């Protein structure tokens, strides 16, 4: 019988019962002894300038109001952006510090009252007048600042070979410009925080992906000793990058709690989230491709133009796909940004590859047609044998096999190659493909585990589970390595008091925190074996073939329960620490997860409405730690791909630097009926270089290609190439037969 | 003071006429399972059963609920025993972060009754209402899931619904 908790098995989520019964407590739901006061954010209505006058008297006199916190009375803070050398997640996020408005929606007051209704009502009574200053709100091809580095430490510019020359000499060329709009992460749980302060210690119940930086950012912002700050985030209602760093309501709740020395809860209203949490900036991507007549890529050029929020050093590497997906003689990838006075721009699921692949994989498709080649065959003919941007070998490379297997499973050979060849009644039918790659990262992580004499194991790390399944896969790793039933393993996460981990982001969570746990479990095994060696009765046992099964150490025909070994240690429990950090392997090899995605769409001739009829993906992400949760991650990314290819667009009012569609009636997400049958296949191949588990990142993999597969299918259905996303029906309608 | 029954328990809700059923529920210890995703009737995270029908609790004022019976996610199972829909959501991984999940499950619970009662939807054809993937997709489209668990949600509801139709 296989242990159903073994690594890879589709174990049900261990936190599943809590989540389906409403018992998992998300940030705003944490119960204190006394109900906290409730804060409501008053947002600035200009993009930049100063507060001229602020009248809070009516609000202060309103029923139930305890305080109206403004820059006039809020606790001391470090200036926004300092220190600027430790990265954006720990730099001061000061607000209500002075009369300066940083962007539309920037908090100008926090109304604190006994109830939400009272706080919200009083917030409407705060009167603010402003002295506006000229603001920069839009960035497009005029972006001309070269960022010091891109997210993930990548270089802004990469140049290999002589691009201009290769491009100039190519038989077939393509020069197209794509654009993607501002987008919202739109995690279903709005950002929320409860803060408690007793004059010395600050307790913060919040929803954040990275716990360690959350402590540090509060220490930096509020001038507190990090040892006096405790951040807890056991359940997180989705993050997708928008909760990597601690955001505005958290700082405000802390300011309120410190000011009053009473607990304060601030939950962003959905309308707040669009400005008081970060979003993904719009991009303009100019792509130039050159190929020989027989379809070999000779030149790949990618120029990216994006906004960057003032004093917030995040630049998205949209050139990531162009840099590493295909072989080429010459490569030129450049990123330029323009500083804007709008709300924070930060990572959103798969920064770089997501919107990068949307444009680049569409352009590759265009090039395949231009060369008169089948889009799958064209891609296969241009597989790289080393990383085109760095010249490093790949730790493993499985893109070609994903494409081949996907094409066979999807029935690609049934497709007529010319666009607008398939019809079903009034529907035009199209089939599209896209390559999928996502960088694989390992981040330093530690953990501590304790095996007690009752046979239970606890693991602690300040890791988070944002829906990715961390609790579950860590349970499996510990259970598998130590031969324990899943029910005896308890994983404790989301608390700054626990050992420092990588946190959740960049698809590095499972591999990094899992490898740290593996290390701890392996050390515990050694410890247990050492104890056993000292036992008289096991003197002659077969220690070379030691196994851990059924709660026992098995030595050939002898076995001893782990509980007994713990007792023999003379302690109630054994504790060990484990860690992992990136080493040579990540220097030597270029590491990625891979996939190929296929979509069938119909486009209504009369209305231009696009419906995705089916999707199929074949993915290769090393060893799969849990087939059920891994599949869900991929499924979620494919849904997102459909959503941002066809629906999502944050619309900016350029005059005010404000997003106008700040709710879900106007910011469209894919709903259940938008999602067709989705088929997911794994090509499971442990990667010996990725980490000790052999796993690779999966959370951001499918989003990096799903949208382009849909867009390419729309082209194949209609013969219309829409280069400004999302592909809404108005952009198709006038071109339809 | 509005008195109503939540999961069979008499509770007194806020008499503040501005307060929604959702906000009052979330202030009560033991009833934070009902989630707020948008506060505008646009996401379904706050779905509860009001006298047996699904409603968005953010669109109902607490004072309107005087004398009503509300069932929230906490009231679906029997004690520690999860409701078959809840079990199916776990088995089919019908969620990731879990934030939309209580709303999805309450919505699914009422939706299965709507189907059983023969109430038609946009995708119902002349053959009448039948439990199918298309019916579920259409009828669950008021419940957003940013984690994108939709296909698994459909699997879970279909399994639980079929079990209800033909209890073995
Ligand atoms: S919170 Fe009620 S529908 Fe979104
Ligand atoms: S499970 Fe996260 S939003 Fe649905």
From TrEMBL, chain A:
Family listed: Belongs to the xanthine dehydrogenase family.
Record carries keyword Phosphoprotein: no
Keywords assigned by UniProt, alphabetized: Molybdenum, Oxidoreductase
Stored Pfam families: Ald_Xan_dh_C, MoCoBD_1, MoCoBD_2
Any GO MF annotation of the entry: iron ion binding
UniProt keyword DNA-binding, yes or no: no
Protein name as it appears in the record: Xanthine dehydrogenase YagR molybdenum-binding subunit
Aldehyde oxidase/xanthine dehydrogenase a/b hammerhead domain boundaries: 21-134
Organism placement in taxonomy: Bacteria, Pseudomonadati, Pseudomonadota, Gammaproteobacteria, Cellvibrionales
SMART domains attached to this UniProt entry: Ald_Xan_dh_C (SM01008)
Cross-referenced InterPro entries: Ald_Oxase/Xan_DH_a/b, Ald_Oxase/Xan_DH_a/b_sf, Ald_Oxase/xanthine_DH-like, AldOxase/xan_DH_MoCoBD1, AldOxase/xan_DH_MoCoBD2, AldOxase/xan_DH_Mopterin-bd_sf
Signal peptide limits: none
UniProtKB/TrEMBL annotation, chain B:
GO molecular function: 2 iron, 2 sulfur cluster binding; metal ion binding; oxidoreductase activity, acting on the aldehyde or oxo group of donors
Keyword Oxidoreductase belongs to the record: yes
SUPFAM superfamilies noted in UniProt: 2Fe-2S ferredoxin-like (SSF54292), CO dehydrogenase ISP C-domain like (SSF47741)
PROSITE patterns, A to Z: 2FE2S_FER_1, 2FE2S_FER_2
2Fe-2S ferredoxin-type domain segment(s): 1-76
Keywords recorded for this protein, A-Z: 2Fe-2S, Iron, Iron-sulfur, Metal-binding, Oxidoreductase
PANTHER family to which the protein is assigned, alphabetical: OXIDOREDUCTASE WITH IRON-SULFUR SUBUNIT, OXIDOREDUCTASE, IRON-SULPHUR BINDING SUBUNIT-RELATED-RELATED
Source organism: Microbulbifer marinus
Oxidoreductase in keyword set: yes
Name this polypeptide is given: Xanthine dehydrogenase YagT iron-sulfur-binding subunit
Domain of life from the UniProt record: Bacteria
